[in-house]
Fold:
Amino acid sequence: MSTPSPMLKEQLLTLDNPVFCCYLFWATVLVVKMLLMSLLTALQRFRYKIFPNEEDLFFKNIEVQFDDPHVERVRRAHRNDMENILPYFIMGLIYLSTDPNPTVACNLFRVAAVARILHTLVYAVYPVPQPSRILAFATMLLITFYMAAVVALRTLSFI
Amino acid sequence: MSTPSPMLKEQLLTLDNPVFCCYLFWATVLVVKMLLMSLLTALQRFRYKIFPNEEDLFFKNIEVQFDDPHVERVRRAHRNDMENILPYFIMGLIYLSTDPNPTVACNLFRVAAVARILHTLVYAVYPVPQPSRILAFATMLLITFYMAAVVALRTLSFI
Amino acid sequence: MSTPSPMLKEQLLTLDNPVFCCYLFWATVLVVKMLLMSLLTALQRFRYKIFPNEEDLFFKNIEVQFDDPHVERVRRAHRNDMENILPYFIMGLIYLSTDPNPTVACNLFRVAAVARILHTLVYAVYPVPQPSRILAFATMLLITFYMAAVVALRTLSFI
Structure:
């Protein structure tokens, strides 16, 4: 993976390409992490008995309720995931298709994924003082911007 | 499609691969379904005259208003779509690139898409008692988790 | 780019395909535009000192606060981006893999990206009267529907 050998471009998005495999693995980790946010929200809803729909009132004598801080914290973290990880998925795939340096690319995929896992931990699971969340957030943001710069420079003539 | 013949890996993400075509069709269905949620929200906004921006006040003597239950129900359904279908799109594409069993893959694509259409119907169009929505939600969630497990096992050595 | 020469299908998702390069460039522009929405939200939060988490209270004598119109306007624009641009990314990639007419495809990518930049300007940066935002919104929506129709017709037999 550390020897940036030339590769036929047709093989970039296949399992023959170790950089693609690395992307696959860490994108899968992030997809699972995002889906677990739904379950974490559900957990909070049942723990604090906060449900937003009439048909969800699984307990007696409760009413639909919004704006519970425990539920909303998880939902904000989940929304932040959507705002950052989903564009990153596309950006990573695009970046990969421009045949980047394998070592750089793999390490970016690893760092970005770990940063977002930390972001979830310090935001939704166990809130800690800033700037921990800002740093975790900025890590993936800067990685995505870097990938965007690489791709934009490569494809600028096709504007 | 039912004969899992070996295929050159370079051809996995082309129209020569019937599994890819199946993914394309059902992903397209889900994209259209998601975009229709925007129009359904707009429909509810005009029906109940609930607009969130000053510049959207198309009727006289109304003010910006939030938290209308009819509008918010559609928006919650739409957000749930983003939380689940968008990661699924990436997961499906990734899963496809690992050359899965064609019959299994195609059926997963079909079931997942139909489940989310049912989810929208029982959530945003005509609310029905639980656990109909939970079942529709869990179907795509479990399918995405299954795909993630398949990919993670295939790419674990590239961590 | 204007001569729709036949191309080996395996080469569609590579830099050898100018239509793919055009998609890469404009998708990158839209990814950057979306990420800037996060920074614009942060800017508004600091300008009006509106923070949703206890750990974000960077100034003395302020409390967590929601529903500030300046912050919420940017967040609505950002959510609208997620609702429309993220499905468009997948739809564009899918559309590209069906080997569309290069001139048509490139122009669709260009118009869609410019329309969403205008959408952000008239929604989140400098609000102007309707129907400017509706037109910008409808442009990408119709382009995505068109791409969906093309793909659905090509892959209908793989339902």
User: Anything to note?
Assistant: Residues 1-5 of chain C have pLDDT under 50 and may be disordered. The interface with chain A takes residues 1, 10-11, 13-16, 18, 20-22, 24-25, 27-29, 31-32, 34-35, 37-38, 52-56, 58, 66, 78, 82, 86, 89, 106, 110 of chain C (CB under 8 Å).
